[in-house]
Amino acid sequence: MKRPRNTAAKTEVMDLINQSDVALSHSEIQSSLDGLCDRVTIYRILDRLVEEDFIHRVIDIDGGVKYASCHSCQTSHHHNHIHFSCKKCKSVTCIEDVQPSFKLPKQYKVSEVNFTVSGLCPQCA
Amino acid sequence: MKRPRNTAAKTEVMDLINQSDVALSHSEIQSSLDGLCDRVTIYRILDRLVEEDFIHRVIDIDGGVKYASCHSCQTSHHHNHIHFSCKKCKSVTCIEDVQPSFKLPKQYKVSEVNFTVSGLCPQCA
DNA sequence: TTTACAATCGCAACATTGTTGCATTAAATC
DNA sequence: GATTTAATGCAACAATGTTGCGATTGTAAA
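ok -> structure tokens follow
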């Protein structure tokens, strides 16, 4: 079994995501790290953090991949909540505690829900 | 104002998407066309078809871009319905006539909704 | 503290997806 | 058939993500 290690880069990435109120992309994280580690290393750190359930991936309206730390996940682990993707400032925000409701027909086996609403966030509206 | 033209490639792309019951990616379309036209041309055709409201873009759970012809769009133009993204066969299907319901807090201006449910489709379940 | 193992890293190379500029081709109208 | 300009092909580029491998380093045990 694998034994995760704490490295400077991993800690810094974790802090960045924790301290942000919006989801961050790989390139945004890379800019913030300012050469602390390699581009590839960031990809691997993000993969590991997702794997270890510290963060989760969010897909924005354009298909862009972002990463966020949902605080509600620390208690119960469910990612089935709404994400808001702002068309103007491109920010992606987790809207906690709002559970979308829906019905699926037939024999579909649902395992995950990705509900992204786009438009203008409070700052841009 | 621009005057759209009907070309062999455009017609073929349109047919492919119309005849498919799942959303198709650029590379899938390229494979089907089998050299009928350039890769770049396919991108431009897809952009135009979206622009002309014949097809619409769907983002799957991994952030992949796919294109589908929603038959319900021909009457009333709204894309706010559920898409099902199969984790096994990677197919993306439009679930028509099922409208998700949700509530957003505060000052968010909603203009679009992308509701993707993932899991196993009837074929893979 | 030192050692040893494996997790992590940096670097180079590659793959995929998407975009842009420009000269050429061809569809629709006359 | 001639004209107009939408559409195409090609080359070049950009962004994003992946893989292999030798070097480095965190950490648990000696």
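The first helix of chain A runs from residue 8 to 19.
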